[in-house]
Design brief:
alpha/beta, 2 domains, six-stranded parallel beta sheet, 9 helices
Length: 305
């Protein structure tokens, strides 16, 4: 008679055999999978190495070309902004190096930068739009009319245009300008600092858009702010490091077609385009310049009148 103990021992033997089979099978499969994964990893590592080398080569070539172009920059822009004044409007992400380079090129073109107006994050933040809209209407100088719109970018740009403009549009008194700039700075919408002197032209400079949930709203506000500065009295160029963000928004908006746009302002070609586009604005013309499809790299040369 088969005892209960025999059944228990037999069952344990079967379970152990199954477990051993699973372990051996898994070990064999694991070795095969590991071998395949190692091969794929080696292939991918080789591809990454090739792409990295190609990228480094392209960067080196671009840097070399940029240095050559920088050497010719004074001759390219000479006289384009003769006796013109330019104000820089710096978005929160504007690169200081871009601002310095543009200031130098404006001087080489015969113009003069009257100062820099530095926008803060609050100026473009959707959750501060109502506060900014109310402040703009309260500090509006006498004789200045805002467009019939509720768009905060357009309203703010029109106000700033009236404050920094020389030669076009209504002139605000120094006291009114000072009051408006102080109020905007106290409200956290402008960085503290001396107000720039009035100018004939404006360069609105920004960087590359950050991938944030409110990026589209911020880009729209900046694009419309630049357009508002132009309607407020100053010929205006919106210059950015990339073709998306504010520049892309402005190019897609038919109501902003009088605004000049430039991408690639982080390189010499883009900076030259921005300065020549400012000269073009001074002559009453506008254009879009950069490296994208259908875009000219530089505006046609327009000597200052």
């Amino acid at each position: 008679m088969i005892s209960f103990r025999y059944h228990i021992v037999s069952l344990c033997a079967v379970v152990l055999a199954l477990a051993l089979g699973v372990v051996l099978g898994a070990s064999s499969l694991s070795q095969t999978m590991l071998g395949a994964l190692s091969s794929d990893r080696a292939d991918l590592s080789g591809q990454v190495g090739t792409l990295t080398a190609e990228r480094d080569t392209a960067r080196a070539q671009q840097s070399a070309a940029d240095r050559v172009l920088a050497g010719t920059a004074p001759a390219v822009v000479a006289g384009a902004l003769r006796d013109r004044t330019v104000v820089l409007v710096a978005a929160p992400d504007a690169d200081p190096g871009d601002l310095d380079a543009l200031t130098g090129l404006v001087g080489q073109a015969g113009g003069r930068v009257t100062g820099t107006l530095s926008l803060t994050d609050a100026m473009l933040a959707p959750d501060r739009a109502d506060a900014l809209r109310g402040l703009v209407t309260r500090v509006l100088p006498a004789g200045v009319q805002l467009p019939s719109t509720s768009d905060v970018g357009t309203l703010t740009g029109s106000l700033l245009g009236s404050l920094v403009t020389a030669g076009r549009g209504p002139s605000s008194s120094p006291a009114e300008v000072g009051t408006a700039f102080t109020a905007l700075a106290d409200g956290g919408f402008l960085a503290p600092g001396a107000a720039p002197a009035p100018a004939q032209l404006a360069l609105v400079v920004t960087g590359s858009p950050a991938p944030t949930p409110d990026a589209a709203g911020r880009a729209s506000t900046l694009a419309r702010l630049a357009g508002g500065i132009r309607t407020g009295g100053a010929g205006t160029v919106l210059a950015a490091r990339s073709a998306d963000g504010a520049v892309g928004t402005a190019r897609a908006d038919q109501t902003l077609r009088g605004l000049s746009t430039v991408d690639g302002v982080g390189a010499t070609a883009g900076r030259l385009a921005a300065v020549l586009a400012a000269a073009e604005q001074g002559a009453g013309r506008a254009g879009a310049y950069g490296s994208g499809p259908g875009l000219a790299p530089l505006p046609p040369r327009t000597p200052a009148a």
